[in-house]
Amino acid sequence: MMTATFRSNRFISRTVFIIVMLVSGLFLFPEDTGSRTVLRRFALVIGSNNGGKDRSVLRYATKDARSFSDVMMEMGAVAEENLVLLLDPGVEEISARFRTIRNITDGISGGPGRKEFIFYYSGHSDEEGLLLSGHHFTYARLRDEIARIKTDVRLAILDSCSSGAFTRTKGVLRRPPFLIDESSAMKGYAFLTSSSEDEAAQESDNIGASFFTHYLVSGLRGAADSSRDGLVTLNEAYSFSFNETLARTEKTQYGPQHPKYDIQLTGTGDLVLTDLRETSAGLLISNDIAGRLSIRDSSGNLLVELNKSDGYPVELGLKPGDYRIIADNHGELFCCEVSLHEGGITRLSRSGLVKITGEKTTVRGDDNTGGQSVEDKTGGMTITPFIFTFIPLGNGNDPGHAYNVSANLLIGNAPSIIGAQVSSIGNHAAFDVTGFQGAGIYNVTGRSLTGFQGGGIFNIAGEVEAGGQGAGIFNYTTGNLSYFQAGGIFNYVGGTLTGFQAGGITNIAKGEVTGVQIAGLLNLTDAAVNGVQAAGLINCGKDVAGVQVGLINIAHEVDGVQVGLINIAHEYRSGIPIGLVCIGKNGIFNLDFIYDSEGRTHLALRIGSHNVYGLLTGSLVPETEPLLWSFGAGFGVHIPSEPFYFDIDLSCHLMNEGPIDRESYGTDHLLPVLRGTAGLVFGRRIGLFAGSKINVLLPGCYNDIDTGVHMDFDLPPFEKPVRLAAEFFGGITFKIF
Question: What pLDDT is stored for residue 291 in this prediction?
Answer without folding.
Answer: 86
